[in-house]
Design goal:
Elements (H helix, E strand, L loop, with lengths): L1 H15 L1 E2 L1 H8 L3 H13 L4 E4 L5 E4 L12 H9 L9 H13 L4 H9 L2 E4 L16 H10 L1 E8 L5 E14 L2 E8 L2 E6 L3 E10 L8 H16 L2 E7 L4 H8 L3 E6 L5 E7 L2 H8 L6 E5 L1 H18 L1
Parallel strand pairs: 4-6
Antiparallel strand pairs: 1-3, 2-3, 5-6, 5-9, 6-7, 7-8, 10-12, 10-13, 11-12
Length: 315
Amino acid sequence: MRADRLMAILLLLQQREQLTAADVARELEVSERTARRDFDALAMAGVPVYSIRGRGGGWRLVGGARTDLSGLTAGEARALFLVAGPASAATPALKAALRKLVRALPEPFRVQAEAAASSVITDPQRWGSSPVERRSPRWLDALQDAVIRGVQVRLGYVDSVGAVTERIVHPLGIVAKGPSWYLVGTTDAGRRTFRIDRVSSADPTGEPVHRPDDFDLAESWREIADEVDRRRTPLEALATCAPDGVARLRMILGDRLEVGGATADERIEVVIRGYNAYALAGELAGLVEWLEVTGPPGVRDQLASIGAALVERYG
């Protein structure tokens, strides 16, 4: 962490010419005492920094000196600042330090470094299951590079029934969802999501991506994930639940449960999504101690059928 701070201070000095301990403390969220020690450490390491005493004083680089840090290649800058992005396993403190460092990067790498830090998000939940280990598909690196550089790609794609298509895609971001990776982008037909393990080719065109000004990858993915969930669980059942059963319903049903207000008899109104009446009734039958389903009739009929079968078998 100290090495990250020293590098950040050095780049801030290049950007602003003069810094005080208070400036560094505010930027890097450390104490002024720590900031002063960091300046001393830079000087001891041979970095040509010096202090100016008194009002209006601070720390400067001798003769406006610059360092080889500005010699980072574009690829090195992108690789470094992927660590600051939401898909990284780095600690929040390290991510915060690197995000501050990215703002201090000299051009032309600042834009690409910032793009790298926001190009990928991770959604660990598999559709309808628990988190699992993921593997990187063949075209992941090429598509991530296209997102970061902001260039369109000619995308070959094999859909779920094996049909092969090709189209121009404006790549906007990449999402790791459970074991799978997805590309979020726009096409002539609007916003689309592509499973990267179904990509058969990805050729950059060199043309710039048209990125909506208000686009946010995390917000966009939430909308996509919500839409997928609605398609997977299109049926909604209405019910009331005993107050002490709401926590158990949350644990079992997760985001398929919507909790409403209290009824006149102090029960809690809930809405539960499921695939179809038969499957949903099978899930809810074990919750009869807390739950009373009020509709639709198909779910109630399936529950009655399950109850009759259980009585017949177990008496």
